[in-house]
Write a structure and sequence with these properties.
With 148 residues, this protein is of the alpha+beta class. It has two domains: 2-68, Ribosomal protein L9, N-terminal domain (Ribosomal Protein L9, domain 1, 3-Layer(aba) Sandwich), CATH 3.40.5.10; 69-146, Ribosomal Protein L9, domain 2 (Roll). It is 33% helix and 30% strand. The chain contains three helices and ten strands, in the order E-E-H-E-H-E-E-E-H-E-E-E-E. It has a four-stranded mixed sheet with strand order 4-10-9-7. It has a three-stranded antiparallel sheet with strand order 2-1-3. A three-stranded antiparallel sheet has the order 5-6-8.
Length: 148
């Protein structure tokens, strides 16, 4: 039997796709729990259109994300901080501060997307990774200098 998945189902498929499952599993589990709808010859065309629309939306999102990644790769942001004992900062630079610096440049990300190799507590250039997706993780350089 063919079903159109309304939600992601582990080891079966992702939401918005048509998959073939056994009759009992489809009726007693997927349809009963409102995880899927049965695909019949009459409604198969509408479900296929939904699948195509979802693929088009996915492509548009991927294109926008890759353009954002290119914009992030070309960045080099400078920040000035108070120092003590030469090259050490009073406090580490947080992911929230990086989000604010990026928003000043017109790039909107969440703080859980900002990845540091290690905490930034010294003067110099540091690479920061922005996790846009599991495959797309552009880096940019943050230059920390002392506040005069």
């Amino acid at each position: 039997m063919k079903v159109f998945l309304l939600k992601d189902v582990e080891k079966v498929g992702f939401a918005g796709t048509i998959v073939k499952v056994s009759e009992g599993y489809g009726r007693n589990f997927l349809i009963a729990r409102k995880l899927a709808l049965e695909v019949t010859p009459e409604n198969e065309g509408s479900f296929e259109n939904k699948v195509k629309m979802k693929e088009v939306k996915k492509e548009v999102i991927e294109t926008k994300t890759s353009m954002l990644a290119e914009k992030i790769k070309s960045l080099e942001i400078a920040i000035k901080r108070k120092m003590h004992d030469g090259e050490k900062l009073y406090g580490a630079i947080s992911s929230q501060e990086v989000v604010e610096l990026l928003s000043e440049k017109g790039i909107s990300v969440q703080k859980n997307q900002v990845i540091f190799d290690k905490s930034i507590k010294t003067v110099g250039k540091h690479d920061i990774i922005i996790k846009l997706s599991s495959k797309l993780q552009p880096k940019f350089t943050l230059k920390v200098s002392p506040l005069a």
